[in-house]
Write a structure and sequence with these properties.
With about 60 residues, the chain is mostly helical. It has 2 helices and no strands. It is elongated, with a radius of gyration of 25 Å. Keywords: Cell membrane, Membrane, Protein transport, Translocation, Transmembrane, Transmembrane helix, Transport.
């Protein structure tokens, strides 16, 4: 492979950066809200699973 010079590299970086399509403000807000809701749902789910397993471990240890 041919090595590129630093100038060519910078030109390639600029060309690729021009291709980037940034999300709109509305898309960013919608995605952020979705992520926050999913984070709350999953945290409650994992809290429930952890609580159930905690009770199971306490019950098993009380048998010994």
């Amino acid at each position: 492979m041919a090595k590129t010079t630093p100038g060519e590299f910078m030109n390639q970086v600029r060309a690729e950066a021009r291709k980037v399509v940034w999300p709109t403000r509305q898309e960013t807000i919608t995605t952020a809200i979705f992520v926050a809701v999913m984070m709350v749902i999953l945290s409650v789910l994992f809290l429930g699973i952890d609580t159930v397993f905690g009770f199971i471990v306490q019950w098993l240890l009380s048998l010994a």
